[in-house]
Amino acid sequence: MNVTPFVTGSVAQQHPYEDIYMDPVYNNVDADDDGVPDNPGEILYHIPTRTGQKNNTNISLGVSATWSKPLDKKLQEQCKEAVDAQISLMKQTNANKRLDFELARLKNCGELMKAGIMFHPKSPYGKVCADVVLVNPPGVVENHTHIIPKKVEVTKVEATGNASDLGTFSIGNP
User: Model's pTM, two decimal places?
Assistant: First the structure.
């Protein structure tokens, strides 16, 4: 829907403006009745005459309103779907770029920490890697345990000095 207010105007004038003019009155006296004025062209006096000249002014006020309804709503719906898809694509692209940035920051901060390089904690850039944690820093052995057998069984062997004395024996849990 489109609503448009408007104002229009026009002025029509004639220049120079004269509301009256002095119309001459001629002497038409024919004293000898020969059909010809005795003093042709003689102006007896002037009479004021209205010219009828006017200035025209016009001002128009109004509002123009237009309402349109598409005949094919399918195209309008496809346009809306395309806009929604484009917005979703832009949001996903932005999220992917943010993830790439965070992964690059994590990798670079981790590698620098392993190398023993870091910002001073009071530096304004110290916050860049503040949330990165090294799980297995170099030179630090992870806590771990070994299982040691509790019982060792040894079989007594009588030695005769022969190679057959090197028979079988067992160590550990049977």
Answer: 0.40
Using CA atoms, how far apart are residues 42 and 30, in angstroms rounded to an integer?
Answer: 13
Q: Is 114 helix (H, G, I), strand (E, B) or coil?
A: helix
Nearest-angstrom CA–CA distance, 96 and 132: 20
- How far is the C-alpha of 105 from the C-alpha of 119, rounded, in Å? 14
Amino acid at 89: L
Quick: pLDDT tens for 23-72: 999 998 988 888 888 888 899 999 999 988 887 888 888 888 888 877 78
Single out the residue of 111, 117, 118 nearest to residue 134, CA to CA: 111
CA angle 111, 112, 118 (to 5 degrees): 150
